[in-house]
Write a structure and sequence with these properties.
Elements (H helix, E strand, L loop, with lengths): L12 E3 L2 H37 L7 H23 L4 E2 L2 E3 H31 L11 H25 L3 H7 L6
Helix pairs in contact: 1-2, 1-4, 2-3, 2-4, 3-4
């Protein structure tokens, strides 16, 4: 019979310092709303500049529309995941299982955002998305990277809340339990 390794149970609930728990209650909401509003505003601004540079706001091909729409959609998915991170908090305790699920969702959103950015940047070099015969404009290449930055910021904030470090918990603690 194989020998089982030492089993150390993972606690289901981790106590959080009250100041950190208070920040956890409103922080993800603020960041999620800012990501949503910022993404919608930037999408509108980029459509405006596309209208100026390409004589229309959106590409005429389906592939072009997917390349334009995928990066902001992944940022919105990251924002929704950050908004739902608050469900990992129960009183002043972090629910470990929900925090793990949220962290995995944040990783998927960031990976998807990276792939969507790569797709949106490389596709204009392969296909003529705008049917104007020109090479990609700098704004066509800059926009997906800005969405990737938005998504990375959302990931970092979500990571800060659902996987707090011991140093962070010590910083917010009034008692030397950490």
């Amino acid at each position: 019979m194989p020998v089982q390794p030492n089993y150390t149970p993972v606690p289901e609930y981790i106590p959080l310092p009250p100041r950190f728990a208070d920040r956890f209650r409103w922080g993800p909401i603020v960041v999620g709303v800012v990501l949503i509003v910022g993404t919608v505003l930037f999408f509108g601004i980029s459509a405006f500049f596309s209208k100026i540079f390409h004589d229309r706001a959106f590409p005429g091909t389906v592939t072009g529309l997917v390349a334009i729409a995928a990066p902001p959609l992944f940022v919105l998915a990251t924002a929704v995941t950050v908004l739902t991170a608050r469900r990992c908090l129960q009183g002043d305790y972090l629910v470990v299982s929900k925090a793990r699920e949220t962290y995995k969702a944040l990783i998927l959103c960031l990976a998807g955002s990276g792939l969507a950015t790569l797709f949106a940047v490389l596709l204009p070099f392969v296909a003529d998305l705008w049917a104007d015969g020109n090479h990609p404009k700098p704004s066509d290449l800059f926009t997906p990277f800005l969405y990737l930055i938005f998504s990375a910021l959302g990931f970092l904030v979500g990571h800060f809340y659902v996987r707090p470090s011991t140093g962070t918990l010590r910083k917010f603690s009034d008692h030397p339990i950490w």
